[in-house]
Amino acid sequence: MSFTVAIDGPAAAGKGTISRAVAAHFGFAHLDTGLLYRAVGARMLRGEDPVGAAEGLTQEDLADPDALRGPDVAQAASKVAVIPEVRAALVDYQRAFARRAGGAVLDGRDIGTVICPEAEAKLFVTASAEVRAARRHSELTERGIAADYADVLSDVRERDARDANRAVAPLLPAEDAAIVDTSDLSIEAAVARAVAEIRARR
Ligand code: C5P
Q1: Number of C-beta neighbours around residue 141 at 10 A
Q2: What residues bind ATP, as annotated (predicted)?
Q3: By three-state DSSP, how is residue 178 classified?
Q4: Which value, in Å, is the radius of gyration of the alpha carbons in the chain?
Q5: Cβ proximity of 124 and 178 under 8 Å
Q6: Residue 74 CA: which ligand 1 atom is closest?
Q7: Quick one: pLDDT at residue 108?
Q8: Residues 6+ positions from 129 with CB-CB distance below 8 Å
Q9: Reported pTM
Q10: Which residue of 43, 45, 153, 189 could cross-link 53, Cys pair, CB 3.0 to 4.6 Å?
Q11: Contact 190, 179 (CB under 8 A)
């Protein structure tokens, strides 16, 4: 039996952490859909046409997620994500993943609204831009990537604006999504909230 959990929200709101914890808790498979757009962005940075890159995406492009985590790839990802043909090329893979037996958690921007409007549980995980920038900044610092807080904050705001204002699949909570604002929540409290919301829908 399939059970789909859709987790959407802006960059660095805690989606990834919550999604991994929720998937482990329920024994579901997890897909970070941002990686798909990052992989397309990385291929664009290497000179490829983004639509061709999205259509020809393979498991090999996703094999080294750490290589896709940098800010340049993130910016490239948010640029290719506005192209309707890029989004369309990635739909089937995400929907097939969502319907796998045993349950699936997909996190992204448009999972509850466009990819899986029939998902059994939908969460919209958010936090203030300042809190998200502070988290992303310490994450980068921990990984040894030098970054300035002000730059990270403007990067977060720039990506928010692009994600919210694009014509196709803008970042919006689904009408039936539970909103989880993690600005003032610890990781443990945020995960507990998410687990409780999902359990209520099972
Ligand atoms: O979540 P992450 O930061 O890895 O996503 C990178 C970029 O990919 C986002 O800024 C967003 O523009 C795009 N994205 C998207 N739809 C998704 C996941 C990511 O448009 N489902």
Answers
A1: 13
A2: 9-17
A3: strand
A4: 16
A5: yes
A6: 6
A7: 96
A8: 153, 156, 157, 160
A9: 0.93
A10: 43
A11: no
